Structures are given as C-alpha cells and as structure tokens.
Amino acid sequence: MSVAFRRESDEEHKEPKFEIPMVPGPNLVTPRGKALIEAKVAELEAAVALETQEEPREVLRRELRYWNTRRTTAEIAPPPEDGVAGIGTRVRIRMGGKERVLEIVGHDEAEPAADRLSFQAPLAKALIGLEEGERADFNGRPEAIEILSVERLFSASTR
C-alpha cells in the first residue's frame, strides 16, 4: 500500500497546545487577589484529581500550570501613601460629567464590568499617583479626569 493512503495517527493532525500566555510585567496583587489565586489553584487541583478522561484532564492541567505560575510570581503590591491612587485603592472620579468609582487591582483580580481595573489598564495608569483634587489627562483630552476621593481597600497591616 502506498504511504499516501496510510492513515496516520489522530495526534499528528491536532493543533499544538501552547501554554496560556502570561501578562508581561510584574504580577502585583492585592491581598484579595492573592487569595483568589490560591482558591483557583485549589479548585483546579481538585478538578484534575476528579477528571477521569485524559483530554479534559490535560486542559485542566494546562490551566493549573498557568495559575501555579501566577501564584509563584504574585507579589503583594506595596501600600500607596494615604490619599494617593495606587494598587489596592478605591478612586472616585468625575469624567465626562459623570461620577464613577473604580478599584485599582492586580491583573488576575480585574473585572472591568464591575469597575475593578488592572493597574496596567490605561485608565488605571492615568490615575496612579494622583491625589484628591488633582486632574489627569486621558484619551488625548487634557484634564479629562478629576479625582474626587481616594481610599485604601486594605489596611497596611493586611498586606
């Protein structure tokens, strides 16, 4: 039989499985973010132990490798000075005539729909280092954001 008609294994035709890409830069987290990573690792370890089929188990293992790396590299962000926007703060702003309350957190803790922004997000970057009463340029508009208040999400002792 010609080699051209021989069926090769199914494995040869599958797309390669790459690792889940890591976010570049430091893995700064809040205490809540560190706890969320720990919980995710525990959840995935339990799921891997319970999974009986190889393909779904390998998907879970891949995700577990990602979260184990995130856990290993996680650093609790240093607390910002009182009244200064930074990782682990809740910032009330006025932008475009509307008030909004945002939390600046680590990447894995971010939920933009819940106004919880990664410190690497453009809006969070514009706020970091600012204090109540200051204004920030944003999206090409000068003084587009006014900082109304800044409060820590966690006390310095919980870090």
From TrEMBL:
Q: Where is the sequence biased in composition, kind Basic and acidic residues?
A: 1-18
Signal peptide positions are none
What GO terms in the biological process aspect are recorded for it? DNA-templated transcription elongation; regulation of DNA-templated transcription elongation
Gene3D superfamilies in the cross-refs: Transcription elongation factor, GreA/GreB, C-terminal domain
Region feature Disordered, mapped onto this chain: 1-25
Pfam families documented for this protein: GreA_GreB
Q: Which GO terms describe its molecular function?
A: DNA binding; RNA polymerase binding
- Please state every residue range assigned to the domain named Transcription elongation factor GreA/GreB C-terminal: 82-151
Q: What is this protein called?
A: Transcription elongation GreA/GreB family factor
